[in-house]
């Protein structure tokens, strides 16, 4: 029997993971509050991800997990089309001048007489069983996401589909539109987008260990505006469009890279 060189295989797998991580880290930072995010517990996390220099810690394996979600989405849509009509894939919804945005997975026709906004997720065994017990209400950010999509699309029903990563079983739930919940989420988005100082931190969600802003929120100066909320702040993508080559964002006043967090006496709030 020929011996298998496990270390060689690990090296190859490691190279793949490193390449996947590099690809994910090279993607432009999101400059808007996502409708898939607005239901998260901690407003400070959402604010920091928008306006502060939150480090991008991307693990190659997790980057592949996120990519797998796109594959699951395509497969579920294909399967739905065996029974129903599906259109409107990645239809964009936007508010507040493009600062609050989302993209639904599609619009499903034929489930009932009403069209349904489609949202597809994948879940491990534990999460899948949780959805069976609690439904979409078990994940506040998912519930918020579909309420936003229904509110902005003008539709009153959503189809929430979860595929098990373990055995490809499906959990399917029809969700009704709740206008009060939608208006509350829209108001929350506006309050986060327009906050000129960090909002309060909320530890009740218990997910601080997995927060990309963990550690940054510990040392943030209370009441200090972030560079991202200043009229003199120019994001890196906009600089590239103008032909300016710089790693990171720019403070026009200082002609230097912006820290995007911290106090500045010359801070000029956005209009």
Helix-strand blueprint:
Layout: H1 6-26, E1 33-34, H2 43-51, H3 60-80, E2 85-87, E3 92-95, E4 100-103, E5 106-109, E6 116-123, H4 125-134, H5 140-153, E7 157-164, E8 170-176, H6 179-194, H7 216-219, E9 233-234, H8 236-241, E10 250-251, E11 256-257
Parallel strand pairs: 1-4, 6-7
Antiparallel strand pairs: 2-5, 3-4, 5-6, 7-8, 9-10, 10-11
Note the main attributes of this structure.
single chain, 271 residues, alpha+beta, Lambda Exonuclease, Chain A, 2 domains, five-stranded mixed β-sheet, three-stranded mixed β-sheet, 11 strands
Oligomer: single chain
- Average of the residue pLDDT scores: 80
Q: How many domains is the backbone divided into?
A: 2
Structural class: alpha+beta
Number of strands: 11
Specify Rg, calculated over alpha carbons.
21 Å
Order of H and E elements: HEHHEEEEEHHEEHHEHEE
What's the overall geometry? globular
Strand content: 15-25%
CATH topology of the largest domain: Lambda Exonuclease, Chain A
Spans where pLDDT lies below 50 across 5 or more residues = 242-258
Amount of helix: 25-40%
Question: What is the correct CATH architecture of the largest domain?
Answer: Alpha-Beta Complex
| Through-space gap between termini | 72 Å
Strand order of the largest sheet: 2-5-6-7-8
